[in-house]
Amino acid sequence: MIEVTTSVLATQAFLRGIVPGHLDALAEAATDVTFPARHRIFAEGGHAASFWLIRAGHVALDLQVPGEGPVVIETVGIGGLVGWSWLFSPYQWKFGAVCASPVEAFQFDAALVRDRCAADPALGYDLTTRLARVLAGRLETTRTRLAAKVHDMAPAD
């Protein structure tokens, strides 16, 4: 395990360029964690109490599909963010996450980060903007996958 410091967090793609004071606040809310392959980090519908920045390994995001069980919708690797439901009430996971390989990550205490954001609106704005970029990228990826699937299902002329 490594000590979570501002200099270590500054190397994370998600946090690149963030104000040093904001890194201090985030470092106080972070711990270094490891998970074995196939470990379920969280399940759809559960309470969103944390979020993670992946340092090593891959995490599969999944969705429960009736009659099929969990279906992987995206895989997040090194430098990626896992978890966004922690920021939006009712703080309930919209998807699940399971380790596709052994994972090393920084885990953030969501309630503490929300408190820090409330105390420092500039931090809240910065994190929300960064999170919105992640969500926009994931929506675009999903749109592309759905469009390809619809195309593959279309009858040949």
Architecture per CATH nomenclature, i.e. the level-2 architecture: Sandwich
Radius of gyration: 17 Å
> How far is it from the N-terminal to the C-terminal residue, by CA?
58 Å
Quantity of strands, as a count: 8
For the biggest sheet, the summary is: 4 strands, antiparallel
SS summary, helix count: 4
| Helix/strand/pairing category | alpha+beta
The CATH class name reads Mainly Beta
Looking at CATH, the homologous superfamily is Jelly Rolls
* Content of β-strand: 25-35%
Determine the mean pLDDT. 91
A few lines on this structure:
The N and C termini lie far apart (58 Å).
List strands and helices in order, with pairings.
Layout lengths: L5 H4 L10 H8 L2 E6 L4 E3 L7 E7 L2 E7 L3 E8 L4 E2 L13 E4 L3 E7 H10 L1 H33 L4
Antiparallel strand pairs: 1-8, 2-7, 3-6, 3-8, 4-5, 4-7
Helix pairs in contact: 3-4
